[in-house]
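Cast an eye over my tokenised protein here and flag anything odd:

===
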Amino acid sequence: MSASPLGIGVLGAGYWGPNLIRNVAACPEARLAAVCDARPEALEKQRAQYPDTRFYSRFEEMLADPGVEAVLVATPARAHAEHALAVLRSGRHAFVEKPLALSSAAAREIILEARRRRRILMVGHTFLHNPIVAKVRELVASGALGDLLYLYSQRLNLGQVRHDVDVLWNLAPHDISIAGDLLGARPLRVQATGLSYIRRAQRIADVAFFSLHYDHGVVAHGHVSWLDPLKVRRHVLVGSRKMLVYDDMNRDAPITIYDKSVEKDFRQPFHSFAEFTTRIRAGNIERLDVPLKEEPLAAEIRHFVQSARSGHPPRTDGPHGMEVVLILEALSRSMASDGGEVPLDYSAIPVP
């Protein structure tokens, strides 16, 4: 006998909340039990589409609803910790959009509360549920690119300008989590610089550049911006044998593999000293289409439901979310010191 659908409440029906609402409603293993938002106009937009769902303007009222077994938190980042703790203390499972909290201390408190209550805590790092990212990870792990030398990412657009966090805390969690997934490692130290143009007086960065330094000399560079003429979501991986471009905006062929490298100590006839020491090798270009059987957000919600039902920790659990927060804190400290290098210490993350 199959379990009944998990009753889910969604807190926040603003920018991202409607995407969660839509995917919960479409999930066969879940039931959209409730939606909560303090703004009447946000609720009205959803009410007509989901007549069997209960709508609340007060969070406390939704938490008193016996039909709500788990809550997805999609409120502004500054409220994530408060709302996640309230959900867990009410005895419900919690899914929290990234970042888990705005400090590692708050993230640790949320993790410990989830463990005390024996409830599932999951953080919304949607790209780790994307089969395209999984395919890139597979190619890296197989050695198809050779030894990975470095990678860089670009996450750019004109807007959406946030007022609760800077561009680093808003956009970089995606690329930090993807880099960690592809490398299977944590950065040892980081650097970042930020630029403020839109809100110069508040010194809130809307453009940022960062570097994550891993073991064996591998570096992941990132560029995030709310102030760019192009919408770009791209990762470039440079290996010793081949190079790969993952372009999330290219729906037809999101992965391109370039059979290119620089070979050292070339021993064929040469015409100059430079040609003797290095030679460029350029081969075929291969474009891969990775079918999306379902929307990554749908896969993420289904994974959360399955974790809540089974009790097994989700892939992006509390410690994973806290790791990203620790990296963001270190990047912020580096940005405040004009790009100084900041080492990372993960010892505060609670162990199972």
